[in-house]
Design goal:
It is built from seven helices and five strands; from the N terminus they run αβββββαααααα. The chain is of the alpha+beta class and about 170 residues long. The chain folds into two domains: about 70 residues, no CATH class; about 90 residues, no CATH class. The longest helix has 12 residues.
Length: about 170
């Protein structure tokens, strides 16, 4: 699905910049080199990412496709499978033990900051924050959300860029 979307800059173009400007211009492509990305049995060494430039403030926007985990060098399905100890398909390459330990340690950390972000956002996400209480772990927050790791991470990033779940 990502490859056809790359052909049209509008498919990934953000609606507006944080400065309020709605004129984001295509500014080229950047490469990401995710580890162990396999599609239909074929390894994919490079994923192109659309880059946009705000005409108002000059901010640069890099829009990752939904399957890539921000800052983790892997796809969300690999991160979720390994961090939550789900069974790995036979064909899937092993993730280094230390990497999995880091991911699991991150999920065991306090979710105080993500919960604060959800409370401030209000609405249904505030209800989620109130359900988990003041001192949940990130894994408990994920379980309470009932969604996927990717969905919660994207929500947090949209509400407060820089706040990471993983």
């Amino acid at each position: 699905m990502h490859l056809p979307m790359l052909k049209s800059p509008d498919s990934y173009r953000p609606k507006a910049c944080r400065c309020g400007c709605e004129r984001l211009q295509g500014h080229g492509l950047r490469e990401r080199h995710p580890l162990e990305l396999v599609v239909d049995g074929q390894p994919i060494p490079v994923v192109n990412i659309r880059v946009f430039l705000c005409a108002g403030c000059g901010a640069t926007w890099r829009v990752l496709p939904a399957f890539l985990a921000r800052c983790l060098w892997r796809t969300w399905d690999v991160v979720e499978r390994e961090a939550l100890d789900k069974p790995r398909p036979r064909s899937a390459p092993a993730v280094p033990r230390r990497t999995v330990q880091r991911w699991r340690a991150r999920l065991a950390q306090s979710a105080r900051l993500p919960v604060q972000v959800l409370v401030v956002a209000g609405g249904l996400v505030r209800d989620l924050a109130e359900r988990v209480g003041l001192e949940p772990t990130r894994k408990e927050l994920l379980a309470a959300s009932g969604g996927s790791l990717a969905a919660l991470a994207v929500l947090l990033h949209r509400l407060a860029p820089g706040v990471r779940l993983m």
